[in-house]
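#struct-pred

JT: dropping the chains for the assembly here, can someone run the whole complex?
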Amino acid sequence: MNKISITGIGIVSPSGIDKRKFWSNVKAGRSAIERITRFDSSKYTSQIAGHVHELDAYSNVSSRLLKKIDMFSHMGLVGTELALQDAGLDLEKENLDRAGIFMGNALGGWLFAETELRDLYIEGREGVSPFAASAWFPAAPQGQISIKYKMKGYSKTVVADRASSLQAIAYGARTLNRGKNDFIVAGGMEAPVTPYALLCCQTSGMLTQKNDTPKTAYRPYDISRDGYAIAEGAGIVILEPQDRVKNRNAHVYANIIGYGTTTDGVDRIHPAMDGAGLASAIKIALKNAGLSPNDIDYICLDGAGTKTGDITEAMGINAVFNGASKRMIASAPKSIFGNMLGATGALDVITTVLAMEHGIVPPTINVDNKDPECDINLCANTAVERIINNALIINRGRGGINCALVLQKP
Amino acid sequence: MKVENAVKEILNKVLDVKPEEIQPDKSLEESFGVDSTEMVEILIGLKKALGVNIGDNELKKAHTFNEIVAILKSKGALI
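RK: done, full complex below.
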């Protein structure tokens, strides 16, 4: 594929909303996972999560609109504003009929929906906000971003579990390759810290139950891991084609140069036990990028933190990289701020471009005893300095979804 | 509480507008960009506050503050 540049980033995360604060916390490996206090979670097997703080301090949303939208749209709007500012785009000079929005999330807006459903059963039909219908559905953030910024180009919302936003970013890049838009706002948002959403996540059996030790609970690739901690947040990037970037002399964080995706076709929750589907997605992405495994310096891992997830991810990587994997380094920085489900891919992209820019690999935290079955060169607990010219990002979702995106330093 | 005050209170709650910002004979759409979904929310709020029911067809006729008040009074809202 032709290179597509990332020229702006917007972060709304438990590790910070501001780009500098986020990178400072991630680089240092400071866990942002806390006990859930938004509601009584004492009956849940998993009672911890990454929460976004200070959203109101960064909010660009009127109190009138806030009554009509769910938190996941709110976070998406804040992230979009930050990304547009970061890219230095002047929308008044843009042809907004050719401005696209590609978003991903897995759950939709349950904080709003749950409250209204409760009112439906208690008060009846007229107890429900008329905005419920337009607040909860997965494409709601896309609509709100479109309305706020008058962006009317070719747009999509992707729902693919934990791979949603990586797919959205990749499809955004492909769309620019086809010349359908001038630029694209891409990424994802998720707000899973609600009673029903947490329940749905819990029934997957993939959440950590180490509730008494939130900061060390999410521990991908450690022998004692028992699942991931969920997190809320949004990650937004601005995508632009090369010629446009040159014309406006824009700062480029990284270029998207390859993408591959496959599905396992094995189980509704768990990945295939041989990692072959993931290996296939990585091979497609590398071929698409015109790179060999030896060219990859860093892998941002899916890092589910489940035994099956970690072992099969390592198998998939090793099936492609063989000896090359000893040179390359890998980490799952989401162990720091939590797994944002449908938004996790966008945060992985943002974390990776910051790693490229700073020449620092952010760590996987809480790795006290690395699982010997996972033969990968893991950056554990402490960040390391490393020049990253090419990076691979892996996301996987329930239903056997495998995605791999290749980024290159400009 | 007068019907007028009840309507002002609901408009404040739904639209974040102050009573002095309301122009009684100017359409809410023109004044505040009110859309059809917000009108439904306003009328649901009024039904809860005043105990009167406004049907969908009557709702479509109510564009201004004074028109809403008139419909409510015709329905027997007296407070």
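JT: nice. Chain B has one domain: 3-74. The CA atoms of residues 62 and 68 of chain B lie 5 Å apart.
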